[in-house]
Specification:
alpha+beta; seven-stranded mixed beta sheet
């Protein structure tokens, strides 16, 4: 019995040394992802999910789409290559969207709406046109709004059902250069500055 117990203890000590505490083991910091990396990238159902539930990241080519606008025209993202594009996912049921949108209107749209190299499109998620129109009138914005009635375009950028408001800034080559979530003063200020600099 004593011999068996000794054998088990010896085997356990050997296993511990193999898993990172022995002299031949690599330090933990070399084998484990950093906290920030772990927070920014996880696997869920074979889809890589990044910070704030995005499934795209900075540097990716923005997924293409075509949506109908409130005025009945069509908007296709890939047809705007060569321009700086900002997408804003929004909805009337989103209180923080209502808070952010007037600032997008005043600090971004009114400043750059005459610039032929800039495109701003609000994308209303999962609402009928008859609900979107009074919402836009209430918040007092004038920038173009597209209708993502089934949420499929949103789901090509973030987990379906994830929260909004969120903004996606895309460069002239169609690559994502900034992703925002919620409406944080410093982040919004950085977004405004990025757009200003890209349009200089």
């Amino acid at each position: 019995m004593k011999n068996n117990l000794f054998t088990l203890l010896l085997a356990g000590a050997f296993c511990i040394s193999c898993n990172g505490t022995g002299n031949n083991a690599k330090p933990v910091e070399e084998t484990s992802p950093s906290v920030s990396e772990a927070a920014q990238e996880v696997k869920a159902d074979s889809v890589t999910v990044y910070e704030h539930d995005y499934i795209v990241k900075v540097g990716d080519v923005a997924p293409d789409f075509t949506l109908e606008m409130l005025d009945g025209t069509k908007f296709t993202l890939s047809q705007n290559r060569g321009k700086v594009v900002m997408l804003q996912f929004t909805a009337g049921w989103c209180g923080i969207c209502r808070k952010e949108m007037p600032f997008i209107e005043s600090d971004i749209w009114q400043k750059h709406k005459e610039n032929k190299d800039f495109v701003l499109v609000g994308i209303d998620r999962e609402e009928a046109k008859e609900d979107i129109l009074p919402f836009i009138e209430q918040v007092g914005t004038t920038y173009p709004i597209a209708m993502d009635s089934n949420g499929d375009v949103f789901a090509s950028y973030a987990l379906r059902g994830a929260g909004i408001t969120r903004n996606i800034l895309i460069d002239r080559y169609g690559k994502i250069v900034m992703l925002t979530r919620r409406f944080e003063e410093q982040e919004f200020k950085e977004l405004v500055e990025r757009i200003d600099n890209m349009l200089e």
